[in-house]
Design a protein that fits this description.
The protein is α/β, with parallel strands linked by helices and 540 residues long. Helices cover 34% and strands 20% of the residues. It has 3 domains: 117 residues, Alpha-Beta Plaits, CATH 3.30.70; 137 residues, 3-Layer(aba) Sandwich (Rossmann fold); 222 residues, Glycerate kinase, domain 2 (Alpha-Beta Complex), CATH 3.90.1510.10.
Length: 540
């Protein structure tokens, strides 16, 4: 491809499985939310699906703009790069290409030149339905001056937090042209926390080989913020999604891999470590993690024990002589996605072990093991590790980190909101949109992500709209927390299989309905009650 003068290539990570023309139309709509005809008039466009630079990027569409002066192209770049909403659509690696790199790109189609009418003509593809917006002039766009913060949690098994933001951005701009979008990926300490924090904080991703819950060697990732703070997600090394249902064995599952990640961060010189411990496959009270950090566990005969659930009952002595020496100089924050204590009716084993594959008999054995481990650990650390809220998170991992590392156990969502500077992002926001897969009484009771966001918005008197797959009993309790509205994606009777298969379609429709209602509410507030024609008084 030959480019004229200065050129800019913008790589979009598309979310819709659609034809190239539909994808391009969508991209132009997004691009024109910040670029107008005066920016693009007379410039040439090339486009096409480009090779991915990273395995996680599935469908990358390259749009090349060329033919302008250096000053003009820099202006376009600055406008696009400064828009957070558009940035959510860009490829995570190499979002921009310049002249020297564009010369080697092959397979892009000449789309045409942007005419003064806003039409794109002269290209090899029909672009008749794609228009570049003219300057708004005196007409004020509907969304001008409105700022919406998008902070949904992931919809487990169907839509990630980042994909949800992208889809909400489409719906927001469709109903409020000119709206400013502030994207904040959200997670509560479980799977997806690493992606959410690293995206929001522009963290560096590091990779390493660790041991999964069943002893296999796998690749895991962790994040580093500004070279000083490590973000470790337990689900990366010890997550339940790493083990198929047929292979799950909660008695043998170990958190050793998570300990390996903590050890690596300490070896790198990092002394501020944030650990997200949701979504685990383990119920070993963090025994495996402790062993990876140099702790030894012995039975009554002096035999060294492996770190897993079935050995909890056998612990007679805990030896910390060889624990990692840097632990004493480090601070640890633990993001808990639940606030359960270690044992009892609401403890980790009784509530969560069955979903990890435990039988009734195994559950009883694990519960006894938890009590034994807590007794030995509390005596060693000289503090009660069992009753602390969050001690039961991740099969007791919270208790071990609290005891051995003197870690601060905190709500996962609160920790994430603090790390991302959520409070400062609320300045000037008209409405916050959040969401998760299912709302019910547990959302408020266990202070999950949506609850945490509503609480913070309530302090600022900012209304919150929640988009969710479905509403269970007790979801209405959120109405008492703040100024909340709820939109469900399931809009007619359907089974779970159908809902999961069509999750994206259902989500998009729900997002559009929600923003339509927000727009209606805005119009009602703005216009007030209309005057009733006099002839109505004569009716009846």
């Amino acid at each position: 491809m030959k480019v004229k003068r200065f050129a800019l290539g913008i790589r979009f990570d598309t979310i819709f499985d659609a034809s190239e023309h539909v994808v391009l139309s969508h991209i132009m709509d997004e691009l024109c939310s910040v670029l107008t005809l005066s920016d693009l008039k007379g410039l040439r466009l090339h486009g096409g699906f480009a090779p991915c630079d990273h395995p996680s990027e599935s469908r990358i569409y390259m749009l090349v703009i060329d033919g302008g002066s250096l000053k003009r192209m820099r202006k376009i770049y600055r406008k696009v790069d400064s828009d957070a909403g558009i940035n959510m659509y860009l490829a995570s690696t190499n979002p921009y290409y310049e002249n020297n790199r564009l010369e080697s790109i092959e397979g892009l189609t000449y789309l045409g030149v942007v005419e003064s009418s806003g039409r794109i003509t002269g290209g090899d593809e029909c672009m008749s339905s794609v228009m570049v917006h003219t300057n708004h002039g005196k007409k004020r766009p509907v969304g001008k001056g409105i700022k919406i913060l998008l902070a949904p949690d992931s919809f487990k098994g169907s839509i990630s937090s980042i994909d949800a933001i992208k889809r909400l951005t489409v719906a927001a701009r469709r109903n409020f042209p000119g709206v400013k979008v502030v994207p904040v990926p959200i997670a509560d300490g479980g799977e997806g926390t690493l992606e959410a924090i690293t995206t929001a904080c522009n963290a560096v991703i590091r990779k390493m080989t660790v041991t999964d819950p069943m002893g296999k060697r796998i690749e895991a990732k962790y994040g580093v913020i500004s070279g000083r703070k490590a973000i470790i997600e337990m689900a990366q090394a010890s997550g339940i999604t790493l083990v198929s249902e047929s292979e799950r064995d909660v008695m043998k599952a170990s958190s050793f891999g998570t300990g390996e990640m903590i050890r690596r961060a300490l070896d790198e010189g990092i002394r501020d470590v944030v650990i997200a411990i949701g979504g685990s496959a383990t119920n070993d009270c963090g025994m495996g993690c402790a062993i990876a950090l140099g702790v030894k566990f012995y039975d009554c005969d002096g035999n060294e024990l492996e770190g897993n659930g079935e050995n909890l009952i056998k612990i007679d002595r805990i030896d910390t002589e060889f624990i990692h020496p840097c632990i004493k100089d480090a601070s640890f924050t633990v993001m808990c996605d639940v606030d359960n204590t270690l044992f009892g009716a609401e403890g980790s084993t009784m509530v969560y072990s069955k979903q990890k594959g435990a039988t009734q008999e195994q559950t009883e054995l694990l519960e006894c093991g938890m009590k034994n481990c807590a007794e030995k650990l509390s005596a060693l650390c000289e503090k009660d590790v069992a009753e602390v809220p969050g001690a039961g998170a991740a099969g007791g991992m919270g208790a071990m980190l609290y005891g051995l590392l003197d870690a601060k156990l905190t709500s996962g969502i609160d920790a994430l909101l603090d790390v991302t500077g959520f409070e400062s992002l609320l300045k000037g926001v008209s409405v916050v949109v959040t969401g998760e897969g299912m709302l019910d009484a547990q959302t408020a009771k266990h202070k999950k992500a949506v609850y945490g966001i509503v609480k913070r918005c309530t302090r600022r008197k900012i209304p919150v709209c929640i988009i969710t797959g479905g509403m269970g009993e007790g979801a209405e309790e959120l109405y008492e927390v703040g100024n909340v509205g709820i939109m469900t994606a399931v809009n007619f009777p359907m089974n779970t299989e159908y809902a999961m298969k069509n999750a994206e379609k259902l989500f998009d429709a729900a997002a559009d309905r929600m923003f339509r209602l927000i727009r209606i509410g805005r119009d009602v507030e703005k216009n007030g009650a209309p005057k009733v024609p006099k002839y109505y008084d004569q009716l009846g």
